[in-house]
Amino acid sequence: MKSLFQWLKTNLDLTSDAVSLLIAIVLIVKYQTQKPQPNNAELLVGILAVLSVIAISGIIEKRSRLSRMEKLIQQEKTLLENKVIDRIKADEFFQKDHKPSQEFFNSADTICISGITLGNTSGQFSYILSQRLKAGANIRVILLSSEKCVLEQIVLRSWGETSSEYYEKRLENTFELIKIMSTTPDAKGSLEIGFLPYVPSFGITMIDPDTPQGKSYIEIYHHNSTEPGPSFYLNTNKDPFWFRFFKDQFELMWNQSSQKTVLEYGSNKYRI
Fold it and tell me: N or C: which end of the chain has fewer CB within 10 A?
């Protein structure tokens, strides 16, 4: 019985139409078959009953429609306040150790990467970067200079017991791996390295920055901690201002770096 009542409430329009039709059918049948025929008073009562059912269902439906509208408006208002008016939560923007995948570079013609030693990055993406060199991509990489004063900076920021020699070795390994990438057979692109004379505040991995398809991952570096640093994703369409900001930051770091070309554009020869 309860389920029937719930169904009738949910399908009020259909129910009221069915009741009105039923009353009308009863009146028609009685008028055609009953002897003597129903008098005007009975017909009037039946007509008033049909009109009453229609009027009552209309009132209930209007109230129900208004309640649904109010509920939807309240939901939209809450969403607007949480996502637009109220500030976005940091957890919704920053992510832990959020880095690009191999697919990120698949069709890139320009690749810009900056970091500290880039040991993990160069090893992880050496294959796809070599493939992009074969496709004619222009790749620039910024990593830390191996000058003693610079290495001492990173030692101060690092957790645990480290040394300048440790980071110097890591930089040498990265440089050797980049040199290996520069010898990729049939490479048509260019590969340049910039050695930065100070520890950067963040790492940048960016592709095609001068096109509408520009994308980037930014990682903020932390101090004396093993926790993964916060990172976030930007593209030119949704984040034009901040994408341009980090694009300019890369260019500023590049201009302050001592640069070496390890693969000349249009040739698979390199010079160190």
Answer: N
List the structure tokens of 133: 């060199």
3-state secondary structure of 140: strand
Query: pTM of the full predicted structure?
Result: 0.67
For 57, 99, 209, 219, the CA distances from 229, given in Å and listed in that order, are 61, 11, 23, 6
pLDDT in tens, 10-36: 555 566 667 666 767 776 666 667 666
Which tokens go with 39?
């008098």
Q: Which stretches does DSSP call E strand in 81-236?
A: 95-96, 110-114, 138-144, 190-196, 202-207, 215-220, 230-235
- At 93, give phi and psi (nearest 5°): -110, -55
Give residues with Cβ within 8 angstroms of 129, minimum separation 6.
105, 111, 139, 181
- The residue count of the chain comes to 272
User: What confidence category does residue 99 fall into, taking pLDDT thresholds of 50, 70 and 90?
Assistant: confident
CA angle 97, 100, 106 (to 5 degrees): 170
CA distance 252 to 193: 14
Task: Measure CA 245 to chain center.
Answer: 19
d(CA 207, CA 250): 12
